[in-house]
Amino acid sequence: MRLLAHQLRGEQQLFWRSRELAFFTFMLPILFFVLLGSVYGKDRIDQVKGSRYLLAGMLGYGVAATAFAGLAISLVVRRESGVLKRLRATPLPPWAYVSAVISSTLLVYVLEAVALIVLGRLLFGVPFPHRVFSLVLTVLLGAVAFAAMALALTGLIRTAEGSSAVVNAIYLPMTFISGSFFSAHSFPRFVRAIAEVLPLTHFIRLVRDVMLRHEEVWSHPGPVGVVAAWGAAGAILALRGFRWEPTEG
Questions:
Q1: How far is CA 248 from each of CA 83, 159, 237, 242, 245, rounded to the nearest angstrom?
Q2: What is the pTM of this model?
Q3: Separation between Cα atoms, residue 229 and residue 110, nearest integer Å
Q4: Per-residue pLDDT tens digits for 222-233
Q5: Dihedral, CA atoms, 157, 163, 169, 174, nearest 10 degrees?
Q6: pLDDT tens sequence across 67-84
Q7: Could you give the angle at the alpha carbon of 141 between the alpha carbons of 135 and 144, nearest 5°?
Q8: CB atoms within 10 A of CB 227
Q9: Which CB contacts under 8 angstroms, 24+ apart, belong to 191-196?
Q10: Which of 86, 60, 228, 78 is nearest to 154 (CA)?
C-alpha cells in the first residue's frame, strides 16, 4: 500500500506537469462548457434550461476525454518508449502500478466534475445536485468503466505515433453521437440506433436523470447495467491483451 500511495503521488505529478495532457483532458471539457453555455445556455432543450442540459453532457465528455482517451494514449506512449518494461524490473508490483494509474485518473476526473458543477453554478445559475451520493456513484461508475475500456484499447494500438489518431477516431464521434454537446433526439434514426449501443449514451442519460430529474442512480438499472457491462468487457480484454513490452523489441 505504501508503494501504491507513492506511485499515486508520482502519477499526479506527471499528469499536472504535462501541460498538453492536462489541457486536452482536464481543461478542454471546461472550456467547451463555458463557450457552449455562453452560446445557448439560456435556451430550452427537452424542457430543460440549456446550461443544465449541457452540464450533464460535459460530464460525459469529460469521462471520455480523461478516463478513456487520455489514459489510453499515455499508456501506449509509456509502453512504446519502454517505460512500462522498465517498471516491471522494479519492486513495484504490476497491480500497484495499474491501480495507481487508474486512481490518478479517477482523481483527475472527480476534480474536473467538481469544477464543472461549480462553474455551472457561478456562471449560469445551475443549481447544485440534490442527489449528491447518486451523482458520486454515477461518476465513479463511469470513470472506472471507461478506464477499463482504455486499458483494453491499448492492446489494439501498436505504435505511439498512431495512438492519438486511433483514440480520437473512437472517442470524438462517440461524444457527438451520444449527445454530449446537444440533444440527440434530432439525429437520424440510424444514428440514434448506434447511440443506444454506446456506453457514453447511457452514462450521460444516468447523469441527466440524477442531476436534472433528481432521481437515484439505482432507480435506473438498465443504463447502469450497460455501462457496467462495457466496463467488465473492457476489464476482461485488458487482462488478456494489455502488454508491458513495446510492440517492437
A1: 14, 9, 21, 15, 8
A2: 0.91
A3: 22
A4: 999 999 999 999
A5: 80
A6: 999 999 999 999 998 999
A7: 135
A8: 24
A9: none
A10: 78
